[in-house]
Amino acid sequence: MGWTILRHLGVWLLIAWPAWVLAADPLDSPSWEDLRKRYFAGQAVVFDEAVKVVAPVTAEDPLNVPIGVDASRLEDVREVQVLADLNPIVEILSFEPGTADPRLGFRIKLQQSSPVRAAARTGDGVWHVGGTWVNTTGGGCTLPSTGSASPDWQRRLNEVSGRIWHNVEAAPGQRVRIRIVHPMDTGLAAGNPAFYIQDLRIADDAGHTLMQIQGHEPVSENPLFTLDLPAGLANLARVKVTGRDNNGNRIDAWVTP
């Protein structure tokens, strides 16, 4: 709890404020206060080391910056939102873990060096924010996709491939990785309107949601998503991938080991 002193009608008052109101941004971003007001106005926000964002310190390719978000140290995670403070399009993606762990790997486009943050909302309504700075030469958001210039991109649009395997790292459950053919244009390159995957649902064979992903323009071309399943789940023989892009084109495919 933080405290401040105010004078009201000639009387000095000692007022208690939630600690999250007074916390300083550990990444010292010039945009954080604006982002907090825009995305988390009136909501409890805490900077929390339990939310990890793993990324290269320096990204050589601003069109394909690998990002790993891990909020699995928190309990009852309902939603995770990923932001790049200094991107012209700040929102990267958000996801709602179903039976999957609240962890996700993916790649993004960065226009310039920027903090990349993950904000995890728990069941009590508190947003737990973690992040890291990523340095890059920039330009990733204003370059056209290579796929949009390919003669066969329309034929392969929203084609899904992937695999399922047992994760031998710290979490002994299964890992699911999917790749979707899509140009993921930001709309910031001349002559290329915004064209990106908007909604994606990954479900098990029985129809239970593993993860729901809401995408935005800065996700990299031909997006690759990696998610982890807890050890307690039964072995999955296949997963169902469904969704659509912002032009209404449908995604519908099975992924098998």
- How many individual domains? 1
Q: What's the SSE pattern? A: EEHHEEEEEEEEEHEEEEEEE
Structural class: mainly beta
- Based on Cα principal axes, name the global outline: globular
Give the second-level CATH assignment, the architecture. Answer: Sandwich
Describe the model:
- The structure is a single chain.
- This protein has helices at residues 19-22, 32-40, 153-156; strands at 2-8, 11-17, 45-47, 52-54, 58-59, 65-70, 77-84, 91-97, 103-108, 114-122, 127-136, 160-166, 174-180, 197-203, 209-215, 224-228, 239-245, 250-255.
- The chain is mainly β.
- The strands form four sheets. Strands 3, 5, 7, 8, 10, 11, 14, 15, 17 and 18 form a ten-stranded mixed beta sheet that branches. A three-stranded antiparallel beta sheet has the order 4-6-9, with no helix packed on it. The chain has a three-stranded antiparallel beta sheet with strand order 12-13-16, with no helix packed on it.
- The termini are far apart.
